[in-house]
Amino acid sequence: MSGYPLSGSRVYLVMLACMLVLSAGIVSAAQVDMSVDEYTLTGDSVLETEEDITYVTGWQSYSVEATVEGDPGAYQACLVMGDAVDEREIECKVVGVNASQSETVNFEKSEWPENMSGRQTVSLVVRDTNASDEPITTSSKQVNILGENGDYDGDGASNRVEIREGIEPRNDDTDGDGLSDGEELKLPTALPNKSDTDGDGLSDGIEVNKYDSAQTK
To answer: I want to staple 102 with a disulfide (CB 3.0 to 4.6 A). Which of 26, 67, 150, 194 is the partner?
Structure first.
């Protein structure tokens, strides 16, 4: 096929026209109006929230739920957790949003990621389904994960044992009787969640520490 070669200016115009056509259907993440609201963290693993940090047990179940609303379309909602060094994408779901109502997204897990403990960030990240990894919006919570074999309060009893026995794994003396939970669990006649196990008017701590008596029942 014959023809005249395109001049430099014509090549530029053709390339510009192609770029405009290709970009016409692409909306950047910054241009999308999207929000994540009513972000909740619940489940057997949740202990308590203090100063915006939720304490959880790593071996028990949890559920993350939130509502996504904004510009109509299909989006990818991902549960992401970790810290600056180790960030993990746990699960992603496609969420369809329409103009008339918000969409609820829920992630239910039987336990927290293996080998992940201590202070972590749990985020719900929303991205365009056909875009890059650039997030449209993100909502995050701070958690502190207690490992089952760890001893958060340093009382000599593992976190898992304390949960099993119904005592507080973040308090080394749950009943405040002067004996650590670990000590009381080793005594056959003392209960770590009852300050005066035998009801004689003397706390277990006084009976053991002052009178050197293990007869707290």
So the answer is: 67
User: Class of 29-146 per CATH?
Assistant: mainly beta
The DSSP annotation for 130-194 comes to TS-S--SEEEEEEEEEEPTT--TT-SSS-HHHHHHTT--TT-SSTT-SSS-HHHHHH-TT--TT-
The four Cα atoms 74, 79, 84, 85 give a dihedral, to 10 degrees, of -110
- Residue 67 burial (CB count, 10 A): 17
pLDDT tens digits along 52-89: 999 999 999 999 999 999 899 999 999 999 876 788 99
Give the span between the Cα atoms of 184 and 20, in whole angstroms: 74
Separation of alpha carbons 158 and 53, rounded Å: 21
Query: Token digits for 35?
Result: 């929000």
Domain boundaries, the chain: 29-146, 159-209
